[in-house]
## 1
Amino acid sequence: MTAPDPGSDHEVAAAVAAEAGHLLVEVRADRADLEGRDLKDHGDRVAHERILALLTAWRPDDAVLSEEGSDDVARVTADRVWIVDPLDGTREFSERPRDDWAVHVALWERGALVAGAVGLPARDLVLRMDRPEALPARPDGPVRLAVSRSRPPEFVAALAERLGAELVPMGSAGVKAMAVLDGTVDAYVHAGGQYEWDSAAPVAVATGYGLAPTRVDGSPLQYNREDPYLPDLVVARPEVLDEVRAALDALADDAHA
Ligand SMILES: Nc1ncnc2c1ncn2[C@@H]1O[C@H](COP(=O)(O)O)[C@@H](OP(=O)(O)O)[C@H]1O
Ligand SMILES: [Mg+2]
C-alpha cells in the first residue's frame, strides 16, 4: 500500500527519493546472488517502478520523464513534469560497498525546476532544494574539481591543467554535484554527454543552496525539451565561479582559434 500523500511538491520529491533509496539499499544487501550487469539492471528497474508507483499515486496528473521509462513526447506540452533518474551512478551501485550513487527526483513546472531532491542512500542522506545548508568554508589551496571516475572527459583534464586544479574522481552526477554542496570539492564540470535526468535534481538542489549552475558555455540549463540530451554542466561554489568561467571561456577560445 502507498503511504499518504506527503504534502507539498518538495515533500513528494524528498519522500520519493528516500523510498527508492531504501529499496535500493535493501536490494543491494538482500540480492547477494546478483552482480555486475544483473545487479545494475535490477536496481534500475525496481527503483524506477517504485518511483512511478509513488508519483502515480501522489501526483496522478503530472507527466514523468525517467531514464528507465519509455518517453512519451506528450510531456513536452505538459505543465508539470517529474524528471527522475532512479539510479544514477549505476556502475558504482554494482560495486559493493561503494557509496557514490544516487537517486534523482526533480519537478519541472512551466520552464523552471521548482522542487528537487537527491538521495544518497548508501550515506543515508537526502539533500533537498527547499532545505539548503550553508556551504562549509573553502580551504586554501588549488581548486578541487569533481570528475567521473570511470570516464573522465578529456575536456575536464584540460580545464584542470589550465586552472592548476586537482581532480577528485567519483561516480554519479548527483554525488559530484552534492560534493560541491558539502565542501568536498569546489566545482563539478562535465562535458561530452549526459541527459536531463542526470542533472535536473542535482541542479534543483544546487540552485536551492544558492548556486547558479549553467551549461559549459554559460547559457542556461533548459529542461523538458523534446530531446532530453543535455551534454554539459557547470556547478561551482561562488568563490571559484569567476575563475572557472574564465578558464572555460579561454578553452573555448582556444578551440575556435
Ligand atoms: N558521455 C556520456 N554520455 C552519456 N551519459 C553520460 C556520459 N558521461 C556520463 N554520463 C551519465 O552521467 C551519470 C554520471 O556519470 P559518471 O559517474 O561517469 O560521472 C551516469 O548516469 P547513470 O549512472 O544513471 O547511467 C552516466 O551514464
Ligand atoms: Mg544518470
## 2
Amino acid sequence: MSDEHPPQPKAFPVSWDQFHRDARALAWRLSGQGEWEAIVCITRGGLVPAAIVARELGIRVIETVGVASYHEYKEQGSLVVLKGVDPKITALGGGEGKGVLIIDDLVDTGSTARIVREMLPKAHFATVYAKPKGRPLVDTFITEVSQDTWIYFPWDMGLTFQPPISKGTLG
Ligand SMILES: O=P(O)(O)OC[C@H]1O[C@H](OP(=O)(O)OP(=O)(O)O)[C@H](O)[C@@H]1O
Ligand SMILES: Nc1nc2[nH]cnc2c(=O)[nH]1
Ligand SMILES: [Mg+2]
C-alpha cells in the first residue's frame, strides 16, 4: 500500500477459486460485446485475468504494458511506464486501439487506467474488480468494492495458522 493507497480498514480476500470464477464471469460478459484482436494486460496484476480471458475468448495475441508507482523506484508521487505497448498493437484500429481489450485485475483510484487509456483511447478497458473512484475509467468489470476496502489477491497470500476463535482477542 502506498500514500495513494493508505491502509484500508476493510479487507476483501480473494481465493484462487473465486478469482477464477470472477475472471471467467468477466470473459462471459465480454463475449457479448464484440470481437477482440488482441489483449493488452497491465502487469503484473493483469497477467492472471488476461490468461483466463484469453483462454475463454480464444485470443492469442497478448501484449503487456508495465506501470508502477514511481516511489518504488525513486520518490513518491506519480506513476512511471516501465514498458510501453508494442507499436504494432498501438497501430490497431487506426492507431487508437479499436478492437483491443485492456485487462487489469482491479481499478482503484483510476491513475493506472488513465495512463493506459491515453495510449489506446478506443480500446475496451476491463477489470475484475472496481472501486468507485476508478469505476468511470472502466468499460466492463464484475464486482465493485468500496473505496475503503483492500483487495487481497491469492498470489499475494499464503496459508497461515489461524488461532481458535476461543483464543482470539475478540469476544
Ligand atoms: O487504480 P489505481 O489506483 O492506479 O490502482 C490499480 C492498480 O494497482 C495495482 O497494481 P500495482 O501498481 O500495485 O502493481 P502490480 O500490478 O504489479 O501489483 C493493480 O493491479 C492495478 O494495476
Ligand atoms: N492488492 C491490491 N492492490 C491494489 N492496488 C490498488 N488497490 C489495490 C487493492 O485493493 N489491492
Ligand atoms: Mg497492477
